[in-house]
Design a protein that fits this description.
Oligomer: homodimer
Shape of chain A: globular
Number of strands of chain A: 10
Number of helices of chain A: 10
Structural class of chain A: alpha/beta
Number of domains of chain A: 2
Distance between the termini of chain A: 43 Å
Helix content of chain A: 25-40%
CATH topology of the largest domain in chain A: Rossmann fold
Chain lengths: 290, 290
């Protein structure tokens, strides 16, 4: 396993792999790795010849009042997890290496970046799209792996790859959860014991919505309200949104007549947590969202 | 020589070349090819194994009141020029192939895109950067060739490649001129006989400025005024700008104490024409623009 900090070293290392006909699988991360990241690495390991992992806390995707400085970091532990997962190359650049220019060019994602998490985090997805475009160009991967916990991010990256014709297959991977259902996230470290127990309310809200849909509820507003009320019933949680949207376009739905993304976001203590599930209601076409 | 219209066909064709270890040289064009384009192709032919030319009039880089519909097109003549220059693959997509999504993602270039031509053409360079990013991803070139006539475009594409880490060497190629000095441009076709003779005033203004600098003039405003007055003295020309800027940053200069770009733009009849030259005043460091 090689740890590289310079862009030119990564390009040289991976050019050599590609010239030898080996396929690169890419797992972009912000470090503080957990079992969710490990599951992406295992998928990349199974499907590619070379596994490339980036560890970079990208300042461009943090707002002025967000947790950039506090974002948890633990490189030694990250390296050990990567070693276990048989990662070949790790890229861990500093901010100057990635953004030498104070006014870097941006990849902008338009309206889809203003929905859901984008409402509370203006510019966030432009920052994500920009760093992912850079990393795609640096690594030249054949496939790139993203967790479904960041559902909006996954939709946007899939669109980015199509819109700018990156020759990369974007692979979405299932959410990995703690035994009580909480979605794994590096930000869970912010939670104290009481908050940690409270945080499971996001998953519970999604489960109740899914159960209601199983009982033939099709009114999107009622489903959204159900999730919102459940989260608001938890004194330690502060609801950001509880949304029922088209799984592809992220447009608000009135009725569940197509594959839908149920998505929730809430503050629990210092942590802004998100979770989601996708449902395809019986009788809805799974290609019906065009 | 192969003429392809589908992105997937280009990717398949050029993947095969790259897998065989052959380097792709890329010449992006909007067609209606002239000797300027031919000079880019010859350079690409000399420096690469495979020469790839795109012919695409990119709607994203035209403003609402610009000449998108009128922009001259002549595919047969273009193909014949490409054949002569031993081009290997031509990509000639339609607009739907390049922009299937009505709200495509954009590459935005920031402030540098608002200077010079960007003042009269807001959004133009975002449109250029977006299509070039797409074409870089589609073609995977080793080198890409751009004419220096579009000096601001060249600076912006060089920055784009660095800012988003495209693994492409951007090569700037000298302006090719008509015998009387007019810079070759597809838009010269808009000029009638009288306008064609008047159009040489842009080059004359640049020559006079260069002569003044040769005679130790170092005041940027006086040099700009000299060029502007010369162009305004031509009744058929309507000045857009006559600028003296840092050759790398495109920031306005007060004194010529570093390599400078002298750039002019004017309307002659229906044609918006541009021209430029770079000067490094004696005694100025050629690395002095940082």
């Amino acid at each position: 396993m090689r740890l590289l900090t310079r862009i030119s070293d990564v390009q040289r290392a991976l050019d050599k792999e590609r010239e030898a006909g080996r396929r690169v699988g890419f797992v972009p991360t912000m470090g503080f790795l957990h079992e969710g990241h490990a599951s992406l690495m295992r998928r990349a390991r199974a499907e590619n010849d070379v596994v490339f992992v980036s560890i970079f806390v990208n300042p461009l995707q943090f707002g002025a009042n967000e947790d950039l400085a506090a974002y948890p970091r633990d490189l030694d532990s990250d390296l050990s997890l990567c070693e276990t997962e048989r990662v070949d190359v790790i890229f861990h650049p500093n901010v100057d290496e990635m953004y030498p220019d104070p006014n870097p060019f941006r990849v902008t994602v338009g309206e889809i970046g203003s929905k859901l998490c984008g409402r509370a985090r203006p510019g966030h997805f432009d920052g994500v799209a920009t760093v992912v475009a850079k990393l795609f160009n640096i690594a030249g991967p054949c496939r790139a792996y993203f967790g479904r916990k960041d559902a909006q991010q996954l939709v946007i990256i899939e669109r980015l790859a199509r819109a700018l014709n990156f020759p990369v297959t974007v692979v979405g991977c299932d959410i990995v959860r703690e035994p009580d259902g909480l979605a794994m996230s590096s930000r869970n470290i912010y939670l104290n014991g009481e908050e940690r127990r409270a945080a499971v309310v996001l998953k519970r809200a999604l489960d109740e919505a899914a159960a209601a849909i199983g009982s033939r509820e099709r009114d999107a507003r009622r489903i959204g309200n159900l999730m919102g009320s459940r989260i608001s019933s938890e004194p330690l949680a502060k609801l950001d949104y509880a949304a029922v949207v088209d799984a592809e376009t992220l447009e608000d739905l009135d009725r569940l007549d197509r594959p839908a993304l149920l998505a929730v976001a809430a503050w629990v203590g210092k942590a802004r947590l998100i979770d989601n599930t996708t449902v395809t209601p019986e009788g809805a076409s799974s290609e019906g969202s065009s």
